[in-house]
């Protein structure tokens, strides 16, 4: 366990401390999902696992992409690729606020010296057909996390309710480490033989992706990919539950959901390229939401989603 | 008599919901108790971010016993009927009494409902209040099915009397009421038990919780103004923000911080908006220069370093916010000084509405219309057009993209930076007004011209593409635009015939039609405006039938004329003569209409004084002869008050006439003459307002 009395010295140390903290609190430490997503919520460990009655506790880092936020690495706190730390516990434990505050202490925020506030902020994801109530958490006037009690996901009421915590890692780390520009933040230990800053790791990629996102990405191809992903998602879900080869019941909720994630990210890319008009925007969001809802329907018909053989009998 | 104390302790309640929730708790609990027979002598409700609290004084220890006498069947009624009565009343036969009634010997039952102890009633009422609480938004948590605004952690519910403190046995899905609560989340998190409200409030204060929101707000305001005063500064008053901030803290600690020299050159409104919207900071102003120089933030705790760390953090966050704002401001000023053409060009690519074209299309229409309206509002046509062309330029600026609420205001700054005339800069800011029913109405002629043009274009445009408001749906805020037109016209006394040939509606309609040929139904638009005017005048105290009577008159697209007429008529009807004249008019009108229907002719001409038989008839002829030219002269000058005064002179002769004379005389010549006389009354009165529409 990291020594929490001492302030962390690098971006990665903050991540490691969060991992140890939530592992100690009993969460399964998952790895990032291997697809492009806009936020940690899209990871199936959150979206799908918040559905159904089975208990769940997971924590993970998720690289998140927001093509429209690209600033060629020049803005002190805007990035098209950044990291979120995500915790999801179902059912939400009664002491979730205290657990959360414990995690801030673990990364070196001294509660006796800082002003922590829970400020109303309701969460809604039109693409996931999801919403919840909660707060943004402020530390000395800065938003350091989102705290949400999921009420509905993929059009399904959440029973039991999951508690979700999302930390914007760069912003939080900049605050804890006292850094003004994200690119100046120490990525590994500043005293390491090869000290690396966040800029050493990511400045170039921010430039490359900003250019591609805004000016180069082939919109016709992206549009086609969007439609392919949409079609594949629906094709997967239209299959019979019983696999003809094995004779087993295999509902393919996750492969279908991958296509939904893909469509969502392709939409974000198209949006960044400025080829989606205001009216079309709503229509695209609606199409992704339809996929998300169908995937949610499929997931609750799987074992992890709480489905049991008796359900068929009854 | 016992006192009751209730505290509902939860995770952080949104600031904007707290005060209402405390009121609802008080109203619902007291209503429930009183309905069950438990009265009380005093009640007070409180709220903090984590608790709703209700304290009742002098509650009855139990509800009074209720006695009710119920009448039953006759003693000789069938056995089944008597048994049924006994069952329904819950009494035995020997408890019945027998009395004489009109119908004979009848059974009576005395039903006694014994009183119930307060604790039992409180428990029931509180459970029902919690389960049905009217939160604007509520949620479930964990495995619960109970809904609350955020997870509800504990319920304190105690009755205190001379004999001690008792916990009321409330149990909601396993959440049991007790006599304990907790203090401040960080400064005094320990649980403690309380015996009554006084003990509760005192212990809370020791545990760093100020229970009363007003006390928190007062403390914040006092501290903030003191600290500002000590530096020769003053806090910019903002009651909404004060209430919100008081709802974010249980233990307010006021800290004043520096804005940073780099940012002091930003417009005061930009500083204020950025600090308020993002950070919930108060602005601190230098009373001499009017400039915003510092901020006040309110923390929720004391610290060993007297808030130094907290303040430093807040300053840093603010600096990041303001460097964005400064970046926008400087970029924007560069474009403004170069004449704003980058922005006006960019608006060509911004869709206003897919059927109504780009913002540039819209601006061109507004410019044409502003020019057309200018003479009527006393504005220079060139300035009005110029103002219309730049009034929306700031929509392309970075500052307005970031802070949409600064639209218009930034327009003024940028128009000034571009060196445009003061009238044009003012119009950039003022042309959005009035936005609400209590918003100020611009009076500078150029601003008025652009404001009217903007709103009339919006209305005509959406009318042309048939996107009118329906029911509660008004996505383009057309009702607000219509009220804006009404208030601009009335407040400035503008005599404009909106729907005349070549008038504002026609110019706007033609400009919209140039695009895809869709033409607004201007008459329908006018009647929409009339509906809004009715609402507006009703709010000012005019009866709807009075307005209808005036709407039916010609020239109703001149809203000033229409309103003057309605106000004069409203005042007239409040006089004795006015009310009675309407009665006389209606009587005349009814008799006449019936006769016209029966005879199949209309009596319009030829009333002749020489056929008058009765002196009252002659007098009415004379009165009409005097009144008519006076009314006509007054009406020619739109002097409704004078016209109505002249009309009032008819009241006595009309009343006398109906008193003395039978209109439907057997003599057909006399009858015809009298009907023609009534017709003359009718036409005289109808020249002033359509009195047939006045009620009563």
Shape of chain B: flat
* CATH domain class name of the largest domain in chain B: Mainly Alpha
Low-confidence stretches of chain B: none
- Helix percentage of chain A: 25-40%
Query: How many beta strands in the DSSP annotation of chain A?
Result: 9
Quote the beta fraction of chain B. 5-15%
Q: Average pLDDT of chain B, to the nearest integer?
A: 92
Spatial shape of chain A: globular
- Describe the largest sheet of chain A: 9 strands, mixed
Q: Percent of residues of chain A in beta strands? A: 15-25%
Largest sheet of chain B: 7 strands, mixed
Count of spatially separate domains of chain B:
5
Descriptive keywords:
heterodimer, A: 314 residues, alpha+beta, nine-stranded mixed sheet, 9 strands, 19% strand, B: 696 residues, Alpha-Beta Plaits, 5 domains, seven-stranded mixed sheet, four-stranded antiparallel sheet, 14% strand
Task: Give the helix/strand layout.
The complex is a heterodimer of chains A (314) and B (696).
Chain A: H1 11-24, E1 28-29, H2 44-47, E2 56-65, E3 81-90, H3 96-106, E4 116-120, E5 123-125, E6 130-139, E7 142-153, E8 156-157, E9 163-168, H4 169-177, H5 198-216, H6 219-237, H7 253-272, H8 278-299, H9 309-313
Parallel strand pairs in A: 1-2
Antiparallel strand pairs in A: 2-3, 3-9, 4-6, 5-6, 6-7, 7-8, 7-9
Chain B: E1 3-10, H1 15-35, E2 42-47, E3 51-57, E4 66-74, H2 79-89, E5 97-101, E6 104-113, H3 118-131, E7 152-161, E8 164-167, E9 171-172, E10 175-178, E11 180-182, E12 191-193, H4 197-206, H5 213-230, E13 234-235, H6 239-246, E14 253-258, H7 268-279, E15 282-285, E16 292-299, H8 308-337, H9 341-346, E17 351-353, E18 357-358, H10 359-377, H11 381-390, H12 398-402, H13 409-417, H14 422-430, H15 445-464, H16 478-491, H17 504-516, H18 522-539, H19 544-551, H20 559-574, H21 576-599, H22 615-636, H23 640-648, H24 651-660, H25 668-686
Parallel strand pairs in B: 7-10
Antiparallel strand pairs in B: 1-3, 1-7, 2-3, 4-6, 5-6, 7-8, 9-10, 11-12, 13-15, 14-16, 15-16, 17-18
């Amino acid at each position: 366990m990291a020594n929490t009395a001492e302030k962390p010295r690098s971006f990665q140390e903050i991540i490691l401390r969060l991992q140890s903290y939530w592992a100690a609190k009993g969460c399964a430490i998952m790895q990032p999902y291997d697809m492009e997503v806009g936020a940690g919520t899209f990871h199936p460990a959150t979206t799908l696992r918040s559905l159904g009655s089975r208990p769940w506790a997971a924590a993970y880092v998720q690289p998140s992409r927001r093509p429209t936020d690209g600033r060629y690495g020049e803005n002190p706190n805007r990035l098209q690729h950044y990291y979120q730390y995500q915790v999801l516990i179902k059912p939400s434990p009664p002491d979730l606020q205290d657990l959360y505050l414990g995690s801030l202490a673990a990364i070196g925020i001294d509660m006796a010296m800082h002003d922590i506030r829970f400020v109303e902020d309701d969460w809604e994801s039109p693409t996931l057909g999801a919403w919840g109530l909660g707060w943004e958490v402020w530390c000395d006037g800065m938003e350091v996390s989102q705290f949400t009690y999921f009420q509905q996901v993929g059009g399904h009421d959440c029973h039991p309710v999951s508690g979700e915590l999302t930390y914007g890692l760069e912003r939080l780390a900049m605050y804890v480490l006292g850094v003004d520009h994200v690119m100046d933040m120490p990525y590994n230990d500043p005293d390491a033989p090869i000290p690396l800053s966040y800029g050493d790791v990511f400045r170039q990629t921010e430039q490359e992706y900003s250019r591609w996102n805004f000016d180069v990405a082939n919109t016709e191809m992206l549009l086609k990919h969007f439609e392919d992903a949409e079609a594949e998602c629906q094709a997967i879900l239209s299959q019979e539950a019983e696999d003809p080869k094995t004779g087993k019941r295999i509902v393919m909720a996750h492969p279908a959901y991958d296509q939904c994630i893909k469509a969502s990210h392709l939409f974000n890319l198209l949006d960044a390229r400025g080829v989606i008009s205001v009216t079309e925007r709503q229509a695209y969001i609606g199409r992704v939401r339809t996929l998300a809802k169908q995937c949610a329907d499929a997931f609750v018909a799987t074992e992890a989603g709480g489905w049991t053989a008796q359900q068929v009998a009854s | 008599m016992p006192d009751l104390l209730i505290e509902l302790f939860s995770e952080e309640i949104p600031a904007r919901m707290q005060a209402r929730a405390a009121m609802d708790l008080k109203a619902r609990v007291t209503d429930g108790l009183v309905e069950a027979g438990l009265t009380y002598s005093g009640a007070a409700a409180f709220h903090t971010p984590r608790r709703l609290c209700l304290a009742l004084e002098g509650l009855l220890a139990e509800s009074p016993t209720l006695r009710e006498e119920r009448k039953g069947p006759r003693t000789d009624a069938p056995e089944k009927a008597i048994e049924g009565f006994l069952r329904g009343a819950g009494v035995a036969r020997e408890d019945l009494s027998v009395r004489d009634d009109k119908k004979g010997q009848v059974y009576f039952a005395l039903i006694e409902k014994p009183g119930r102890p307060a604790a039992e009633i409180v428990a029931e009422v509180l459970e029902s209040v919690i389960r049905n609480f009217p939160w604007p938004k509520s949620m479930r948590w964990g495995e619960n099915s109970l809904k609350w605004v955020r997870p509800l952690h504990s319920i304190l519910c105690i009755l205190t009397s001379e004999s001690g403190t008792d916990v009321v046995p409330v149990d909601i899905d396993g959440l049991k009421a007790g006599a304990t609560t907790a203090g401040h989340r960080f400064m005094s998190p320990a649980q403690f038990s309380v015996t009554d409200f006084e003990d509760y409030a005192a212990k809370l204060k020791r545990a760093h919780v100020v229970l009363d929101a007003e006390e928190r707000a007062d403390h914040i305001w006092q501290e903030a103004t003191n600290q500002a005063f000590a530096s020769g500064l003053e806090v910019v008053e903002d009651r909404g923000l004060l209430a919100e901030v008081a709802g974010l803290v249980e233990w307010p600690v006021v800290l004043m911080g520096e804005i940073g020299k780099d940012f002091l050159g930003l417009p005061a409104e930009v500083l204020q908006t950025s600090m308020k919207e993002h950070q919930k900071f108060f602005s601190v102003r230098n009373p001499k220069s009017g400039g915003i120089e510092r901020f006040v933030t309110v923390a929720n705790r004391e610290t060993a370093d007297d808030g130094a760390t907290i303040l430093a953090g807040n300053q840093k966050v603010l600096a990041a916010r303001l460097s964005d704002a400064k970046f926008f401001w400087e970029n924007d000023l560069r474009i403004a000084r170069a004449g704003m053409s980058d922005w006006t060009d960019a608006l060509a690519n911004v869709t206003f509405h897919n059927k109504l074209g780009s913002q540039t299309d819209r601006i061109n229409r507004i410019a044409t219309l502003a020019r057309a309206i200018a003479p009527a509002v006393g504005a220079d046509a060139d300035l009005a057009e110029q103002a219309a062309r730049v009034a929306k330029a700031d929509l392309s600026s970075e500052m307005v993209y970031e802070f949409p609420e600064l639209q218009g205001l930034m327009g003024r700054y940028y128009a000034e930076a571009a060196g445009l005339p003061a009238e044009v800069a003012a119009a950039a800011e003022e042309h959005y007004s009035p936005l609400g029913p209590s918003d100020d109405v611009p009076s500078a002629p150029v601003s008025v011209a652009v404001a009217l043009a903007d709103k009339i274009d919006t209305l005509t445009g959406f009318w042309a593409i048939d996107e009118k408001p329906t029911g509660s749906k008004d996505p383009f805020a057309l009702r607000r635009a219509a009220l804006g037109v009404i208030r601009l016209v009335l407040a400035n006394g503008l005599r404009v015939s909106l729907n005349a040939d070549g008038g504002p509606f026609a110019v706007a309609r033609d400009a919209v039609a140039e695009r895809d040929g869709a033409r607004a139904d201007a008459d329908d638009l006018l009647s929409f405006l009339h509906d809004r005017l009715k609402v507006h005048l009703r709010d000012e105290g005019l009866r709807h039938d009075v307005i209808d009577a005036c709407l039916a008159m010609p020239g109703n697209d001149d809203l000033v004329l229409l309103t003057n007429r309605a106000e004069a008529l409203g005042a007239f009807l409040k006089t004795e003569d006015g009310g009675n004249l309407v009665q006389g008019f209606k009587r005349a009108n009814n008799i006449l209409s019936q006769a016209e229907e029966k005879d199949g002719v209309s009596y319009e001409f030829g009333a002749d004084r020489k056929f008058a038989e009765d002196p009252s008839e002659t007098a009415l002829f004379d009165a009409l002869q005097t009144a008519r030219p006076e009314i006509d002269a007054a009406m020619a000058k739109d002097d409704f008050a004078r016209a109505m005064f002249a009309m009032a002179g008819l009241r006595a002769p009309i009343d006398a006439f109906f008193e003395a004379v039978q209109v439907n005389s057997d003599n057909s010549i006399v009858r015809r003459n009298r009907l023609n006389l009534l017709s003359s009354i009718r036409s005289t009165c109808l020249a002033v307002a359509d009195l047939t529409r006045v009620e009563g």
